[in-house]
């Protein structure tokens, strides 16, 4: 399956979930004729149609490619291989969210900087802890002290 | 132009420092390869949350101005454009550097950017001011027409895939339906999460899809070649200024038209102006071999666009590029909706934007020279540390918006969505337009029907709504015709190849 077919299927599944959720929206005596469900229902129908068109186009393109073996696939093959790295990025972010209320902002942000630097391939030497601690102090000074945002203080720090 | 307002704003707010800080941030951000103008602006968005509206808008607009110049620095020095719109500058800029004229190329870029920005600002002021009279005539029906016009430009922003553009816009509108509905106040798609009751702030979607997805895309990418030698900017001599006049004029005109065109943007303007400058040049054979005109034309064009692209944004609330979409996010954070009524209800913001942009443009000449060593230092930083600091900035910045960890998680999700959209070839801008305009289209449509007791003829009784809806229809038909024409042309081009084989 090519990218169009996969993305079309993902859209269709998302659309089905959205449509189902739209049917759970309660009616109200304050509702107008169009109602709170009106736009979600219309959007759902349109997205369903577009998803089917994208799937159909993907399947047609796949058939043409199969039929014409001489034509090279012009899509770079390394695209999919970067997906795990992107997911790794998100997981590090999720780890930050989980640790923030426990460790507190200065420690959590320091750890996150060190983790990302390692994840992105920084040389494992003294520069990582130095850059992480410097960054932690810098961001704490900017956000907590200078801007007075009040980043979360954790149970430990 | 209200000079009394300018004086008041200059003396009672942080407008001038904001313009200069935004400019500095923009030059530094633009100089980082892979960090586009829109990402540079998105990174700053959370910081503007607590600022006065006019100060915040000026700061963001100044970032855009600075980033357009900043992008040319790595384009000239290491053959890697800092922003997309600096890609055309690489051709002759890097050739000049190879010939030992890096300082001269940077000077031409700075001077051309200055002239382009000034011309763009002049056009912005003269073309948007007359719109203020329209403000008083706007009704809910007119806003519905305006929203539809905004959505109709999606067709031209979908870069070859109208269906994907439309799908992205519908997903954006679905995101906009989260929260209380605009008439009855019924909760939709909140799933018991209190953070979703007030809806989803467009700024969260913007930061996720623009800034975070870029980090994911660049994750694991190899390091760029560093730059070791010292370089000083040399502004063009009087003779050189005279020589560059023609290409700068071409760049200005191209920048004006592309800024007005939805989906146009600085990159297209830069390449078009480069081609036209070569065509009209007395020495076209020198293009590609280190021609100063080859630097001047695209740099004038993309800097002109930084101002002229604000014309459709301020006039109709339509962001025609990623950067103006982020600027629109800045407006929305402060409860401002660009469009005709902005000129009536928040005239001081518009005036402040004009003046702040002027300050940033003038400051660009000075800071462009002063900041060069800092830009070179930044370009030489190892990518892993840059990525770590940028992510830390994003995470910390989002928390300032609403003190919510849920929002940080939501932005991470939007980052992944942006990554997947890029990989599957879905454009971002329709998604953002859907998020921004979805609420306006629904609320104005339903309010109009409440006023008319459900009679749709109310839309035909408002001449502004009729005009905007007709313009939308014309735009959609033109975009469809263009797409079919382009598709037919590419098929015709492909046909002879097959026969020749």
Automatic annotation (TrEMBL), chain A:
- Record's superkingdom? Bacteria
What transmembrane ranges does the database entry give?
37-56, 89-116, 128-149
Name the UniProt key words of this record, in alphabetical order.
Membrane, Transmembrane, Transmembrane helix
Tell me what organism the protein belongs to: Mesorhizobium denitrificans
Its protein name is Tripartite tricarboxylate transporter TctB family protein
What single Pfam family name could you report for this chain, choosing any that match?
TctB
**Residue limits of the DUF1468 domain?**
6-149
Q: Does the keyword Phosphoprotein apply?
A: no
TrEMBL record, chain B:
Ranges that cross the membrane:
12-35, 47-67, 105-125, 131-154, 310-333, 353-379, 386-412, 424-442, 463-481
What keywords are annotated for this sequence in UniProt?
A: Membrane, Transmembrane, Transmembrane helix
Q: What is this protein called?
A: DUF112 domain-containing protein
Boundaries of every DUF112 domain copy? 18-433
Q: Which InterPro entries match?
A: DUF112_TM
Source organism, top-level taxon: Bacteria
Q: Does the keyword Hydrolase apply?
A: no
**One Pfam family linked to the record:** TctA
Traced from the root, the source organism's taxonomic lineage reads: Bacteria, Pseudomonadati, Pseudomonadota, Alphaproteobacteria, Hyphomicrobiales
Coiled coil region boundaries: none
